[in-house]
Design a protein that fits this description.
Helices cover about 70% and strands about 0% of the residues. The chain has about 220 residues and is mainly α.
């Protein structure tokens, strides 16, 4: 078959359509974000540019500000996206749920949703924290595959994240001078995030059986 006819094959056509949808989706999402930034800036009396600036540059602080916190959120988001993709790819509800929850936790941590955003609309910080804990326990006891050998990782991660949340709540009830309590909370939280991210990726690896040779759907061995 001539090479110039490849794009007209079934698989070539599917990939062309898929990439067009990706471009359209990316453009639509960015337009939506721009409109949201303009809307919020208008009602809050802000410059819309503030939504696009780096936080450390906007605040006029050192570039290293929030490095560890951003790293933790990035780990949550990255591992959540990978796990969610694995779940959708294999059509495994347990992996999809874990990936979605992990991704949501990362976005919440990065955007300060439960700490600053939701209280603006009257939702106390404790409400989403309880919801996250409930979702995590639901996955652990009802959806988690018992064959997963990294259960202890999620147990440790859940314990550390609960401890971090407890330190945070106690700090609000009984304020302490200095930054020792805040550092303790963040150190415990980051360790919990690292363990959770490792567990999520390990779970995704188990579900998708990583290491098995990938088969090109358009290749000669394909059954499609």
């Amino acid at each position: 078959m001539p090479e110039n006819s490849a794009p007209n094959t079934k698989h070539g056509g599917e990939w062309t359509i898929a990439w067009r949808l990706v471009v359209l989706a990316a453009a639509a999402i960015n337009v939506a974000m721009l409109l949201a930034a303009l809307f919020v800036a208008q009602i809050r009396g802000l410059d819309a540019w503030i939504f696009y600036r780096d936080p450390s540059a906007a605040a006029g602080v050192g570039f290293y500000t929030g490095w560890i916190s951003s790293l933790g959120a990035s780990l949550w988001i990255g591992s959540g996206a990978a796990t969610l993709f694995a779940g959708l790819l294999t059509r495994r509800w347990d992996c999809t749920f874990l990936g979605g929850l992990t991704l949501l936790l990362g976005l919440d941590d990065l955007l300060l949703i439960h700490e600053d955003v939701l209280p603006i609309v009257g939702i106390p910080e404790i409400v989403p924290m309880i919801a996250y804990a409930g979702a995590g326990l639901f996955w652990f006891f009802r959806l988690r595959r018992k064959t997963f050998d990294g259960t202890i990782i999620f147990v440790a991660a859940g314990f550390l994240l609960a401890m971090s949340a407890s330190i945070d709540q106690l700090g609000e009830l009984f304020p302490t001078p200095g930054s020792a309590a805040a550092i303790a909370e963040d150190v415990v939280k980051e360790l919990g995030i690292f363990l959770w991210a490792a567990g999520a990726v390990g779970y995704a690896a188990m579900v998708t059986r990583l290491g098995r040779p990938w088969v090109d759907p358009a290749g000669p061995n394909s059954t499609d």
